[in-house]
Amino acid sequence: MAKPLGKLHEEKVFKDPVHRYIHVRDELIWRLIGTREFQRLRRIRQLGTTYLTFHGAEHSRFSHSLGVYEITRRIIDIFQEKQTWDPEQRLLVLSAALLHDVGHGPFSHSFEKVFGVDHEEFSRDIILGDTEVNSVLLQMGEDFPKQVAEVIAKTHPDKLIVSLISSQIDADRMDYLLRDAYFTGVSYGNFDIERILRVMRPTEDGVVIKSSGMHAVEDYIMSRYQMYWQVYFHPVTRSAEVILSKILHRAKELYETGYTFKRELSHFKTLFEGSVSLEDYISLDEGVIHYYFQGWMDEEDPILSDLCIRFIDRKLFKYTEMVSFTDGHLLSAYFQEAGINPKYYLVVDSSSDLPYDFYRPGEKEERLPINLLKPNGEIRELSRESDVVEAISGKRRTDHKLYFPMDLIEGIKDESLKTKIKEILHK
Amino acid sequence: MFEDHLKVVTLIQEAGEVIGRKKLQKMVYIAKKLNFPFQEKYQFHFYGPYSEELTLKIEELCNMGYIHEVKEKVSGYSQYRYAVNEEGQKLLSTYGAEIELLGDCVRSMNEQSSRFLELVSTIMYFDKFDADEIKEKVQTVKAKQKYTEEEMDEAFAYISNLKNRVQ
Organism's domain of life (chain B) (predicted)? Predict the structure, then answer.
């Protein structure tokens, strides 16, 4: 085996609008950033279709991944002085932080739903398979890639290092809230990250926060709450996502029924056939997807062509609040009668968020709480100390919308049918 | 447009009544792994595979008045029971479609304990590994549950049994 990678001759820095600088001192990290699998993240937007609502949201998963790495690096610098921190874990955590999203594909959410692929499985495959990332990680030891994969999959036995990357207050969330707020231009995603980092303390079961830092954490929780409803679940972004997903469904259905596409389907073929290899997956990025969508605008199939025009030219679906099951089925029948295929043009989309939840003693819930460390050494769960957090704890907020093409409805010649459809939509 | 919601209602109907959110989560996950047509995305959480999407769907179905949720206190902690109510029955008879072979598997799973289904679903989550590696993973990620060798063998046998039922 080659000699384990050590320190760089001199520190490298990346200029970053959120953290000012990303500092790289380890050869391992520098080499990982240079791999083709990591560089591919430059070509995948962090927020998928959000750029169609917030035009600034063009930032990539590459910059987010560097940001998560940088936050983790800063946390570890603070932890190095603490007895509960094992310095040998440093490169493991930093590698996992950097690579936590390496398996994401273009428009992951829709791709995963339509083609049954899973970005977490691809993250594991990229880390453990025959890739540049794997060959760099292997230089740290035969078991090292497996350990990195386990931290990302949350199945590593060391709860502390898992919690740095996946918990209710972790480096991933802290970076994406700040970065997404910066690039979308909204003002509500900000919180005092420097303060939070300074009050984080390592314990065997995960990170705790010194109680003097509680107000900074309150601000972080509220930022998260605001960002989900103002940015991530924006109804216009969801409209674009609905259309994107229907394009993929339609193209897959056409392929399965023997339709002849004008353009060679080299990138999509294995996805349609459910036999996508790691190399096929790595070759996908948003540029490739846009290339196909632009080509499909000229396809003979009117549904595929229409949906692609809507996506590329931003002629999105309109939306209304969710209708009942009965009205939904009535609408489907009316759409069918009007010659509008409800399978592609009548779509329910639901969003839901739980801004913070706590682990109630004795209850079998899934989330680990944020714990505060009191000056006397006592550990107290955040919502028991903070009235602000208590007010939103465990409260799920949901939003259901029905998406439809208003322009096609307006074009229905049968006035009575059009009226019946509009009556349901405007109830 | 509500096909995925209907599948969840169908599963609960086949079970009769499901006691515990965790149990319901694991039943849908195991059914999905047996190739029944459930679309909910699962991730590995502290109690094994968990789907936020399923949590959302169940809440929607309760809000829409098709699923009856009862919260009760059992030896100090809260427990939830789920059953399809009268409106849900009507919904299934109007729009529902039978999912072949699902009922038999679901009723069998419902007879198992939540702890056992947590083990079964965790084993299925790691199905890319060989049996010894899976056992090692279970002992690592589920150390607090202290599953015995016998329980794990029983879980492997149970998975084979379920797979035979759907063949």
Answer: Bacteria
Residues spanned by the domain of B91: 3-165
Q: What is the ipTM of this complex?
A: 0.72
Residue B140 with chain A: CB contacts under 8 Å: 155, 157
Which residue from B109, B93, B90 is spatially nearest to B36, judged by alpha carbons? B109
Q: Measure CB to CB from residue B56 to each of A112, A325, A398 and give the nearest one.
A: A398
- Provide the domain limits for residue A406: 235-351+400-425
CATH number of the domain residue A283 falls in? 1.20.1250.30
Task: In whole angstroms, give the CA distance from residue B33 to residue A246.
Answer: 25
Residue B145 near residue B17, CB atoms below 8 Å? no
Q: Hey, which residues 52-111 in chain B have their CB within 8 Å of chain A?
A: 52, 55-57, 59-60, 63-64, 66, 76-78, 91, 95
Q: Are A364 and B77 within 8 A, CB to CB?
A: yes
Helix (H, G, I), strand (E, B) or coil at A180: helix
Residue carrying the six token digits 């993250």: A123
Look at residue A356 and tell me if it is in a domain: no
Quick one: A77 and A194 in the same domain?
yes
Chain A residues near residue B41 by CB distance under 8 angstroms? 112-113, 118
